[in-house]
Amino acid sequence: MAGYSRLRRNASARKAVLRDLITDLILNGSIETTVIKAKELKRLADKMVTLGKQNTLASRRNAAKLVRFEKDSDGKLAIQKLFDEIAPKFASRNGGYTRVIKTGVRRGDATQMAIIQFVD
Predict the structure, then answer these.
(1) Per-residue pLDDT reduced to its tens digit, 47-61
(2) Measured between alpha carbons, how far is 23 from 26 in angstroms, rounded to an integer?
(3) Residue 3 has what pLDDT?
(4) Residue closest to 29 by CA, chosen among 89, 94, 87, 86
(5) Which one-letter DSSP state was computed for residue 84?
(6) pLDDT tens digits for 5-50?
(7) Is the separation of the CB atoms in 78 and 23 below 8 Å?
(8) CA nearest 36: which of 6, 68, 1?
(9) Could you give the CA distance from residue 10 to residue 52 in angstroms, rounded to a whole number?
């Protein structure tokens, strides 16, 4: 067992999907996706919040390798939002920054769906 789900994609496609999902999660706070993608995204999101809590130049560079440079409705980049808004909320917390809530099955192919969001 490799320790992660391949998501039926090659390495570059899997990385692209997870980069898009982590960026959308940071910008929106909550997204709906499949359960398998949500579980993989939970691992990455917790690592990104941990980098945000360190708030060093090295941690910003490491986070920038994974998070896309997209802006939210207020004009803030996703990296800025991660380090300025999301990470300070979890300063006293030692892990478990996200939750996965199963919602049901998708109508087209009966895939189990879930909502992933940051814990308040």
Answers:
(1) 999 999 999 999 999
(2) 5
(3) 67
(4) 86
(5) I
(6) 888 899 999 999 999 999 999 999 999 999 999 999 999 999 999 9
(7) yes
(8) 6
(9) 28
> Going by DSSP bridges, is the β-strand pair 112-118/98-105 parallel, antiparallel, or unpaired?
antiparallel
pTM beyond 0.85: the answer is yes
Q: Which CATH number among 3.30.420.140, 3.40.50.300, 3.30.565.10, 3.90.1030.10 corresponds to the domain 11-118? A: 3.90.1030.10
Rounded CA separation 56/66 (Å) = 16
For 70, the token pair is: 């997209």
Judge whether 5 and 25 are in contact, CB under 8 Å.
Answer: no
CB 111 within 8 A of CB 33: no
